[in-house]
Amino acid sequence: MNHCRSIAISVLLLAAAGCREASTPGIDGALAMRYAQGNYDLGPRIFRTEGALRSAEWIKAEAERIPALAEAKGTVRLPGSAQAAFSGVRNVEIAFPGSSDDFIVVGAHHDTKFLSGVPDFAGANDGASGVGALLAMATATADFARKQPLPCGIRFVFFDGEEALVEYTERDGLTGSRDYVNMLRSSGELERCRAMVLLDMIGDRDLHVELAGNSTPALAKLVLKAAKDLGHSGGFSSGSIPMLDDHYPFLQAGIPAVDLIDFSFGPDNRYWHTAEDTMDKISAESIKTVADTALRTVWLLAENDFKDLAE
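Above: the chain sequence. Below: its structure as tokens.
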């Protein structure tokens, strides 16, 4: 299944290379930072705690305040499968309709890691930067959609439970993205999900996004093209290291997916999952660079009608 989709996206990539420049919305970096600060200020947002609930409710409230949301026919909900009530998953989705019933998922996680040695860990980069990016992307998309139709549906999904409480297993970690995929499957929407683009740890002031090695290859190449189109080639490269991240359940379900992640946070990655992951370590420019590249990727995919992605 993945092989067939990968071939289809390869065809799409060749077509995209020759098409005219897409009219793509760009985000407000300062707005993204304000959103990131607001999410960070909530404090720890550990899965299955009141902090995660506060985070989901805060994201939903901020999303509902997006000025052009109603005019763009955007909707905000807390999606979940039948198991969500038992697992404690609190995902948030901002969905926009497009000119076709197909849609792309753009995701980031809003929970933070439980660190026994850092009880107040609030994750500026590892959590809040992705939240800020997605809210700013949804704002830019709403502004665009009130003037002209989107080329396809776009769903911005804030995943809960990405971080493992102990260690990653089938029952620990990636809980929100697994639940979301299960929800798509049970609702009959899975085949309409054409691709998934994940943003994780994308605010580092010293930005270099190395696409996860287990990203769909042709989709990763399209991200690099999008970065080049926007003049950001120096900040992106293909990686060889696979990541157990929220794109993985989509890959398992046969959905092409790519993980935009800067997994080198501070000297020797020493800021990652430590008390050093604070707001002074991230920047509006970095978030904007990644978010704009992700949106450009979405537009390249959608405006070429996905070609023959059907099985």
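The chain has one domain: 24-299.
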